[in-house]
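Lab meeting, action items carried over

1. Structure of the two-component assembly. Owner: GW. Status: complete.
Input record:
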Amino acid sequence: MFHKQSHLYKSNDMAATFAFLKDVRPFKTAWKVQVKVIHSWRQNTENTVETLELVLSDSMSKQIHAPVLNLSKVIDESNQTDSHSEFGTSSCSSGINAEIEFNLGRGRAKNTMAVNLTAEAIAKMLNGEVASENDMTPVLQVTELKMIQSKLNQNHESSNRYKITLSDGILSQQGMLNASLNSLVVQGSIQLGSILKLTRFVCNRVQTRRIVVVADVEILVEKCDIIGTCVQSGSPNEPGRSSVFDQQRSGMGSVITQQSNGCGFEQQQAKRTDLNGGRYGASAYSPQPQVVHNSPDAVRYSVSANLPQPQVVHNSSEVGRYGLPANSPQPQVAHNSSDAGRYGGANLAQPQVGYNSSDAGRYGVPASSPQRQVGQRYGTGSGYSETSPSTRPYGSSNAGYGGSRLEQPRAPPATTAYSRPVQSSYQPQPPPMYVNRGPVARNEAPPRITPISALNPYQGRWTIKVRVTCKGVLRRFSNTRGEGKLFSFDLLDSGGGEIRVTCFNDVVDQFFDQIVVGNVYLISRGSLKPAQKNFNHLHNDYEIHLDSASTIQQCYEDDPTIPRHQFHFRNVGDIENMESNSITDLIGIVSSISPSVSIMRKNQTEVLKRSLQLKDMSGRSVEFTMWGDFCNAEGQKLQMLCDSGASPVLAVKAGRISEFNGKQVSTIGSSQLFIEPDFPEARELREWYDREGRNAHFTSISREFTGAGRQEVRKVITQIKDDKLGTSEKPDWITVCATISFMKVENFCYTACPNMNGDRPCSKKVTNNGDGTWRCEKCDKSVEECDYRYILQIQLQDHTGLTWATAFQEAGEEIIGISAKDLYYIKYEHQEEEKFEDIIRSVTFSKYIFKLKIKEETYSDEQRVKATVVKAEKINYSSDTRFMLEAMDKLRTGDANSLPVKLESSNYRSDALNSGIGTSGTRDTASVDARREFGLPAANQVGQYGNQYAGPISGITSCNACGSNGHVSANCPSLMSEPQGQYTQGRYTGGGTPRQHVGGY
Amino acid sequence: MDTSSPSAFVNGALLRRYIGQKVRTVIQVIGSDTGSVVGKSTDDLQIVVRGPSTTPPLTTYLEVIGIAESDNSIRAETWTNFGNTFDPQNYNELCKLASGEFKHLFI
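Predicted assembly:
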């Protein structure tokens, strides 16, 4: 890190021998290296100190990173990249690996004692924070000293006063020495360069400026090079320095800026200049070539071989202002664009200077230059006011300045393009200098960082300091207004505020490449729009839309106060009760992972999918599904970890809860996965898992394996009463394996309205008009022919007991085997009583698997639990046997879960089921309900059941080998060596098998 | 019901326990010869069933009740076609249960 005592030389000043960078070590002082600046940028740190960050390379191609804290050493970035420069510093410290940091302010100048100027003292004086010695006793350096003769009383010695300019190395401040100190000046104790501790002083405001009146000092160092801005004696710039002092018209301090564009160093002296008003006002018009107002060290650094004269360079923007031809040979005062704002302020205060008063405007204007940035930067400065120069704190200068930042990668391309060519084309042109009086419109206040949480749409200007946590892909869209593209990224700040930024079209080009996940940026300007909650799950009601006037500036120094990620973890147990499609963060132990499979999407594209089981301290587990690229990157890593026997911790940022097969969590585009992350939650989880979680039993809120088949809870009939099924708010859904022991054959069906209502028949009861037509109350129509629908009252019996149940149309058909209409005709139209009885007999005493809906209904103040058959399936003895074998197996191995257990009806979402049908005027409300259920596709219900009765709780297991249900892998047909073709689960029905004796006795 | 001579449910492996006793099993027919049928037991062992020649056609699965002659042969008394779809796994499990833990219920 360069500090005030560091020296930067032009490469044409080749006197010394140079060390190589590899030889530069901490604690080694007084070395010199010759390096090339290969990269540089500016950076604002949290406390508003701006540094210039350089990457230097020497002739051996060794690179080093060198932050420059003292901005007096600012380098013109527009040129430095190809310049050969030589840097030397007097000290350095803390070199690690390839990076050596030059330490700031702790080194000592070669010829001074170890004295540190008080950092920011001047800034504090300027802004009024320090008004007297009571606030601070700053150590400052005298950079100017001039005797003033008092006109009032010329005869008295005491009327001689010394005007003094004090510097803290960065800013300077004018002041007067109390007459009592004159003797010190006379005897040489206070001279140019002396370092003083102000033990008694007062900061006064005189007109628009502040003057420090020094009453008493402690002299720390009598003789010293001027720190920070000093001029090397013997440097070729000497003339420049003298001119500075000669030029003084107003007698104020001198400081300046200068730009040696040719050499690649830009002098960014801004701070020192602002108080030195008026000096150059005249010179601006002066035909004299000498007007170089270089600050001492500006001179030093600017020294360029190609500039034979100490005069300097001029920025294009001034051409217009002064009306000079662009290539005017007229020597003029150097002017640095980066000082624009500052000088602009001065100009306002000093209209006599004669040129355009608004520097900002001037700079914004350059015809050829789309230098948006300048204007905009001005805009960002906050807290700056015309009348209070004091508001500009030290170190902030560039907050608002485009000058040297134009090169920064974040600058819009146009701006970048501008700065280089323009500057070079006007290179040798001597710039005029303007006056700095009271700064007026400066814009260099540090960007005041607004917390994300404070952003709102009514705020014009703000700057946030944020870390990019997530960056979306560039997407293209087309709408009525044409094609477009957009991308978005998510931000997090140190206050934990989150917000999404969206860029459209051109702005995408501007910023897309710049945004890198994990980096810290200063982002200014942009409009706040209500967040699009469909796409944006962040906890913020707004999102930012950037436009071309927005700036994004990278902070190369990481800010540890901004977390890398922010999680709002919910445990798996909570997720069970969260709404589907909501976004959550989740952390858990991966207990198993399945390989990637390719899924064909509806739009005929294939996508990879990989599922894993996550469990956490809530004792629940959930299926987590990765889609797309996650399967390969994170998925592969997890697979490897799991294969090696580990149970990795996985943190999921922004997963979406879905309700496919129970609750699941799956990735979305902006999800992020962290494997074995290092943060407290993960450590806690790991600890818990190692301690107890490993052996704990988990209940899944997902169905772990999909597969067709029965996934419902098998119950026995007495459990309907014993478990008080149906008495909770929602119906209970069970299956029983039972025999139809009785069936009411009267009124097995009713006459129904066949009118189509939407895509399904009305099905309300119709009444006979007596004339052969049927009237439907609901449709208010009569029809020639009515429909017949089942309403079967049946008695079910299993080994535990009996229950009544009602089977409506579809279930009735499943039970009877023919439609209600056919059966009606057999019985009533054709009077085939025998046939009818055969049919009924064939059904009674047959065993079915019934899916029942159990719900308590109220009839005339009487509570009755109604059972409605939703689905009836002739028993498949083979699969039912397997089911029983498994149940026995579990029973014997003592797994209590294999027994039918109580339903958790709260988990069941019946709403979905009720959406469908609902018409029909049947006799009672129960039947209406039942009908609704009936109309739904069975698959739907299967899915529903699956949600709830997943996993071990149901006692129904899934085969690991073939994925189907109803058997465990030990019994899986796919693993058996029997010829597979013989057995098909669906085909075999016990009753129907031919069983014939072949021989025997 | 004649309970004096119950027939034990066996698969191929259990057969040897009941040599000289009455057993019943289901085989998948592999081939038939005069006076014998070769089949595969539900636990995938080969069993030869001898006895009065059967009346074709045989279905894929065949239940045989008879006396266990050796650990892989049965002298059949009763043949029953069991159809072409049969779940040998379930039957195998039944055999194991009926000769093991729940033997008391069967014999």
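2. GW to write a short summary for the group page. Key points so far: The first strand of chain B starts at residue 8 and ends at 9. Chain B has a mean pLDDT of 86.
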